[in-house]
Design a protein that fits this description.
10 helices; 311 residues; single chain
Length: 311
């Protein structure tokens, strides 16, 4: 494993000045273009910004208003400049760009069949979404997030919406979706899906720029929790974490049998995160993800790509 204090690790990991990640498809280290970066730095880096966030943005009404605006036809004009700025592959889209009726309609877009093929090995865990991942092979008591000093524990994340005892000292996968990512999420394994329960909370950004200032965001934010029973990985706690300006988290599945790679739901406008928790000894993550995560370096992956296998 790479030395956490090596020059390579220091150069690769995200800092408070710049967010960097590794593109798993190309292997390149990429400086992330963060939508609304100046606003995020103001909100999380200044006293005035922090006060404004707590007084105005950290409110359900603000998220609902933002969602309402992004569903209006006036926002269609934002779509093409957004795709050009963030180099979104238009060939993958289910519909031509001019058929989307609002920015949110584009934001929750589906993709053409076979653009996200499942890893063919049935014992491989699939990524539930497009996004940047960190993996935690063991969540020891008080396990720390790489981006500063926040703790990541099953008890805090689940808030007893489901029993956290099975997941103590287990493993975790975090997938951060940026606003330009495909925002539908999928089942990582075959099994049975329980009902989804909502945990009330805040509306912080989940970008590393925000996590560096508020490292316990995953445990603060509003989130949905569902438990999967799988034959390959045992029980999996599936947690969808809302974020700044996420109007809602929509479930499109029905409780009961679930199939790996099949859609579970989608996030409305805004950034967001998915956290999967595993029982102890259930999964072995791929070595490249373990090494990069130990250095605090996120890795961009695609939906349904393999991330690990049954231990």
């Amino acid at each position: 494993m790479t030395d956490l204090h090596s020059p390579e690790a220091t150069a690769a990991a995200s800092t408070h000045r710049q967010v960097r990640y590794r593109d798993r498809q190309t292997g390149d280290i990429v400086a992330e273009r963060v939508p609304g970066e100046s606003l995020l730095r103001w909100l999380y880096g200044t006293t005035a910004g922090s006060l404004f966030f707590r007084a105005a943005l950290n409110r359900p009404l603000c998220s609902r208003l933002c969602g309402w605006w992004q569903q209006s036809s006036w926002t269609r004009r934002q779509i093409r400049p957004f795709t050009e700025r963030y180099r979104i592959n238009l060939e993958e889209l289910e519909h031509p760009l001019d058929e989307y009726t609002s920015f949110n309609d584009f934001f929750i877009r589906r993709l053409k069949p076979d653009t996200r093929p499942c890893d063919p090995d049935p014992e491989r865990l699939l990524s539930p979404a497009d996004g940047k991942v960190l993996v935690y092979p063991q969540l020891e008591p008080g396990a720390k997030l790489p981006v500063k000093s926040g703790t990541l524990t099953a008890d805090a994340l689940l808030a007893w919406a489901i029993d956290p005892i099975s997941y103590r000292n287990g493993a975790a996968l975090v997938v951060r979706l940026a606003p330009y990512d495909y925002h539908r999420f999928h089942f990582p394994a075959d099994g049975q899906a329980g009902e989804t329960r909502m945990i009330e909370g805040d509306f912080h950004s989940v970008n590393p720029l925000a996590l560096a200032r508020e490292p316990n965001i995953f445990c603060y934010n509003r989130r949905n929790v569902c438990e999967l029973q799988t034959s390959t990985f045992g029980k999996i706690a599936y947690i969808e974490v809302g974020a700044l300006n996420v109007a809602s988290i929509v479930q499109t599945y029905a409780p009961g049998p679930c199939e790996r790679g099949v859609e579970k739901g989608f996030f409305q406008f805004g950034g967001s995160t998915i956290v999967l928790l595993f029982e102890p000894g259930a999964i072995t993550f791929d070595d490249d993800l373990v090494n990069d995560s130990a250095n605090g370096l996120e890795v961009h992956v695609r939906t349904a790509s393999g991330l690990g296998r049954r231990a």
